[in-house]
Amino acid sequence: MDWNLEIDRQAESRRIIRIPPGFEYMATKNQDPISPQQRRIQGTEQKQQVVLSSENHFQHTNNKVASGTCGVNYMEIDEIDLPDLNNQLAVVEYVKELYAFYKEQQHLCRPTYYMNRQPELNNDIRATAIAWLVKMHYNLRLWPETLYLAVHIIDRYLYLEVTPRSHFQVVVICSLLIASKYEENKALKVNDLLQLTGYRYTKEVVICMEKMILNRLEWFLTVPTTYMFLVRFIKAAKADKELENMIYFYGELGLVEYKMILYVPCKVAAAAVYAARCTLGKSPLWTDTLQRHTSYSESEIQDCAQILVEAHMAAPSSIHKLSVVYTKYKLKEYGGVALYPPAATHSCYLKGTEQKLQVVLPSQNQVHIIEREVKFREIRDSRARAESRVIRIPPGFESMAAKNQVPTSPQQRRIQGTEQKQQVILPSQNKVHQTNNKVASGTCGVNYMEIDEIDLPDLNNQLAVVEYVKELYAFYKEQQHLCRPTYYMNRQPELNKDIRATAIAWLVKMHYGLRLWPETLYLAVHIIDRYLCLAVTPRSNLQLVVICSLLIASKYEENKALKVNDLLQLTGYRYTKEVVICMEKMILNRLEWYLTVPTTYMFLVRFIKAAKADKELENMIYFYGELGLVEYKMILFVPCMVAAAAVYAARCTLGKYPLWTDTLQRHTSYSESEIQKCAQILAEAHLVAPSSVHKLRVVYSKYELKEYGGVALYPPAAVLIEGALFEVQAQGVWRFRQYHIAILAMLKENGYERCNLNRQDIGHPH
């Protein structure tokens, strides 16, 4: 496909495109103002954008690429990443920028001290709960990422919501459930967690609490945890297996220790590395490499490290909450690192004075041990006196879903996008009251959540999350307005609708050839439009933007992401690997690494279920969905409306009656009249798609295959294109008005795929 790329003669002979003038400014200069949607995600109206690479650096890079002397190290890859140079998952080309982004984002949604707002909880109760969580996490053999995220969820929820002590264990197991769904390849099942608690709770109670936590956290789980930084700093420390285990030991001690909530995850990770090196006597205790990667000097982390070392000292006590972590890391599996005596002497600066860490003898802790033992016995006795193995929901449980007793934090409000944004309460108060009564009486069944009839076939499918799929899509409908690209061609001097259509059509063709997931295609188009909405792009760089968007989308959606070499091969090696990586970084930086967005495909999947579609109707809906990707006009509509219009156009085309049902209206939130304009654009796109020179021809050719039931060969819905203005391109552009009913009859009579339109057929003036 002809991209009309500006290739000079010398570069053309080598099949290498030089970076055009102005390319370097795309990384460092914001030629277009950031949209309000972007500013809301940034968290402030005037937040300064993080510039990942300097202008001089990119100019230097461009010179090297143009001269052909650019090697793998042109990105100045750090020495600690060189062993992972061939590991695509390590993303060594922009791992520094990734961690710079993590350090910036760690301040958002970070919980602070909250015990003063929890009348029934305290530090010891929290420590007991986290210690139990660590034990369960180890028994279930989950990923460490899951543990750290679960603790983060617990602390964020307790920071935002007053929680009775009787509900605390439910919060813990639900947080573990949510984290496992986010991090694990195979998520935990509710029954697994119920078994761990001795069936103290019912499945309905767990699901109800899970929904409440997700609602209170606004479904925002993409946060940097301490573990993310630990992995990086372990590489910077050049740690052997023993040091690595010791660092993870201190990291998990930090999860149990409530004082650590004072510090950001990056500092906790740095302190864990420092404490581990002190304990094992690694010299020097702190290196220049560690200081560069952590951004902390030795003196800045010593107060945090001292808390971890003190936790290590207290951990061997059999009744101490930290003993669970101690017991885990004294196993041979972890090299028995917990058995090392904690660092007894190293300088630490507290309150401006130099002190020495001293080993705390048991006799000094005797009073504290007795107090903890009394509390432990009280907890044990209260459990023994429980009337039954099932805990009824106490009065006040319903308030956790419908009332916000604790004001939303500034961090939460920034993520919401407005200081006074009203929170969406997903379950109504009456509904929760009704649920509580059913649970208390023991008459609550699986259908207490009023699962929709379209979800009943998936009742046993955990991935379908039928218990809160309605709330999930309510959240999608709210979030689709953020980061949605708008008309941008007036800000692109070298681009137009036809050029964009050509690019997206080529992308559809490559996507099909690579057999990628449909989610990848829709996300890639979203990335392209968002980037073009924010950055002025020369025409010669558009194909580069397209392949990089596909690369990013594949890394986000696919089980096995594309490799850069795969994409270079598709372009006939017009670009070098370095140029692709450079552009990939620019796109991610411009989009602020924010890729968790609802696309049209997410809604298509739901609405296909609501339409009770057979395979033919399903293929037709996806056909219209992909036509909408190529058609620039569709950028005017939100993804939910585009998906609804695709379903409506497909039903009209196949003659499914009624064309619009009450079920579809309830799930899409649109009436038939509201989506007709959008559906008409899709039908017009279907009408012109067979033209051999039209950009939509690629989608048409794909869906006329037997693999997709040949649905593209159906004539477009007459009800949608009567009297419409449309275009047919054949060595020029002809515009026709008021398309005749007779022509539609001809299409049906002769077969749409064989129908040739010409001036004589339609009486077009010469």
Automatic annotation (TrEMBL):
<keyword id="KW-0132">Cell division</keyword>
<dbReference type="Pfam" id="PF00134">
    <property type="entry name" value="Cyclin_N"/>
</dbReference>
<dbReference type="Pfam" id="PF02984">
    <property type="entry name" value="Cyclin_C"/>
</dbReference>
<keyword id="KW-0195">Cyclin</keyword>
<feature type="compositionally biased region" description="Polar residues">
    <location>
        <begin position="405"/>
        <end position="420"/>
    </location>
</feature>
<protein>
    <submittedName>
        <fullName>G2/mitotic-specific cyclin S13-7-like isoform X1</fullName>
    </submittedName>
</protein>
<comment type="similarity">
    <text>Belongs to the cyclin family. Cyclin AB subfamily.</text>
</comment>
<dbReference type="InterPro" id="IPR048258">
    <property type="entry name" value="Cyclins_cyclin-box"/>
</dbReference>
<dbReference type="InterPro" id="IPR013763">
    <property type="entry name" value="Cyclin-like_dom"/>
</dbReference>
<dbReference type="InterPro" id="IPR039361">
    <property type="entry name" value="Cyclin"/>
</dbReference>
<feature type="domain" description="Cyclin C-terminal">
    <location>
        <begin position="224"/>
        <end position="343"/>
    </location>
</feature>
<dbReference type="GO" id="GO:0010332">
    <property type="term" value="P:response to gamma radiation"/>
</dbReference>
<feature type="domain" description="Cyclin-like">
    <location>
        <begin position="131"/>
        <end position="215"/>
    </location>
</feature>
<feature type="domain" description="Cyclin-like">
    <location>
        <begin position="602"/>
        <end position="684"/>
    </location>
</feature>
<dbReference type="InterPro" id="IPR006671">
    <property type="entry name" value="Cyclin_N"/>
</dbReference>
<feature type="domain" description="Cyclin C-terminal">
    <location>
        <begin position="598"/>
        <end position="717"/>
    </location>
</feature>
<feature type="domain" description="Cyclin-like">
    <location>
        <begin position="228"/>
        <end position="310"/>
    </location>
</feature>
<feature type="domain" description="Cyclin-like">
    <location>
        <begin position="505"/>
        <end position="589"/>
    </location>
</feature>
<dbReference type="InterPro" id="IPR036915">
    <property type="entry name" value="Cyclin-like_sf"/>
</dbReference>
<dbReference type="GO" id="GO:0051301">
    <property type="term" value="P:cell division"/>
</dbReference>
<keyword id="KW-0131">Cell cycle</keyword>
<dbReference type="InterPro" id="IPR004367">
    <property type="entry name" value="Cyclin_C-dom"/>
</dbReference>
<feature type="region of interest" description="Disordered">
    <location>
        <begin position="401"/>
        <end position="420"/>
    </location>
</feature>
